[in-house]
Amino acid sequence: MVSRLQQTVHLLILLILCHGCRPHSPTAIEQRCQALLKQKDFFRLRDLIAAGDDNLSPEKKRYYQACTDNAFNRNEASDSAIARLLNGSRDLPDSLKANLLLLKEDNDFKLGRYARAADANKLLLTSYSTQLDSSDLDDLRNRALIENGLVAIPAQQTIFPGDTGTTTIPWQRDKLGLIEIPVHMGDTSVLSIFDTRANISSIMETDAKRLGVRLLGTKYKEGSGATGNTFQVALGVADSLRFGNILVRNVVFQVMPDSILYVAGFYLHLILGYPVIAQLREVHILRSGFLVIPAHPTASPLHNLAMSGLDPILYCTINQDTLIFDFDTGASSSIFYDNYYHRFPKEVNRNGHSDSVSSGGAGGMIREKVTILKEVHMNVGSQAATLKNVTVNNDPIPNTKKLTYGNLGQDLMQEFNETILNFDSMYIDFK
């Protein structure tokens, strides 16, 4: 699904929360906060507002706090800050109200408050459509179909096996090299791809009928981040599913035509996406072939993971430069976007060689002109890693707006014996 915070990124925030409601030139720190938000650099934005600069007004600080709370999975806190801003002042400009409502919509969707998300969406479309460009409006209308289709569905709920039990689940690779785990729906077991970049879990239409996924009578547009292709899917919900001794209720699925999930001669029957994975709180992916889910997540000072809508993004260091990447357990290998190519053109051209490759995902395959880098050295989490034969796109992926520098996949994970995903303290680390 197209990122639910794309609009927040595309709209440059024109904050006029001001004394006497008179427009004024943004201070240097306001300009810095605006730039970081536009770049999805929630990490530096978090640190900047935490420094407590006196040149940032309490209202503006609360706004940016709402943005970073949203990015770091503190959705309740973000909603609280939004309510204080919307209810505490009559002088907010429409541009700011629109961005606050976009944040609220995303918070409420993640919290399973689908009716509230639909209400925020409706208010945006009826009262603030002039604050959005045509592509943003199309995306908002598409999300309205999803949210209105879910208004009667309870929030997803994950039930763990007591306070002390650790869940261990075997995993294996499919023909595309992707991680699959056994998922039980009713009396049937099906292998499911474990995919952090799937905004909503997905299932083939024939499997949805076979496994009892209820169709909700809603159809909407979906897009493939790998190809930029769009296609129509249906909305469904599974009353429950199990993996290991963990039970998940009210799981939302996008139900796809079988042909869409037929990739490189292989069917992707079921994909567990971010909403299911995030509620596990912490997952250890062992290279030996096991997923370990502890009863209680472990805190860490790293905090190098954030959410841009429903997309996980990871803070890394390359060439002493801190960069932001998508993190994708559903990708067999990493790929760097054209943003990386244009940021380091001399290095890429000097150390790489030109090629063309086929890549794809749900929705098909595309052929791209690329540069292949023999090695890329990076620091991620507490570790150093070396990626081999990294593909760098020379041109943008069609129909997409990428602000991150690439998509990190399983080749990064295979550098280590263990990958730790923590959606509670928001970090990714390796051992």
Which properties best describe this structure?
431 residues; alpha+beta; Serine Threonine Protein Phosphatase 5, Tetratricopeptide repeat; Cathepsin D, subunit A, domain 1; 3 domains; nine-stranded mixed sheet; six-stranded mixed β-barrel; 13 helices; 24 strands; globular
Describe the overall structure.
The structure is a single chain. The chain folds into three domains: 144 residues, Serine Threonine Protein Phosphatase 5, Tetratricopeptide repeat (Alpha Horseshoe), CATH 1.25.40; 137 residues, Acid Proteases (Cathepsin D, subunit A, domain 1, Beta Barrel); 126 residues, Beta Barrel (Cathepsin D, subunit A, domain 1), CATH 2.40.70.10. The two termini are 31 Å apart. The N terminus is likely disordered. With 431 residues, the chain is an alpha+beta fold. The strands form four sheets. Strands 1, 3, 4, 5, 6, 7, 8, 9 and 12 form a nine-stranded mixed beta sheet that branches. A hairpin with a 2-residue loop joins strand 4 and strand 5. The protein contains 13 helices and 24 strands. 30% of the residues lie in helices and 35% in strands.
Report the C-alpha radius of gyration, rounded. 21 Å
CATH architecture of the largest domain: Alpha Horseshoe
The DSSP helix count reads 13
User: What portion of residues is helical?
Assistant: 25-40%
CATH topology of the largest domain: Serine Threonine Protein Phosphatase 5, Tetratricopeptide repeat
On the 0 to 100 scale, the average pLDDT is 89
- Choose one word for the global shape: globular
Low-pLDDT segments? 1-24
Derived from helix and strand composition plus strand pairing, the structural class reads: alpha+beta
Count of distinct structural domains: 3
How many beta-strand elements? 24
Gap between N and C termini:
31 Å
State the CATH class of the largest domain: Mainly Alpha
- Share of residues in strands: 25-35%
Main β-sheet: number of strands, strand sense, barrel status? 9 strands, mixed
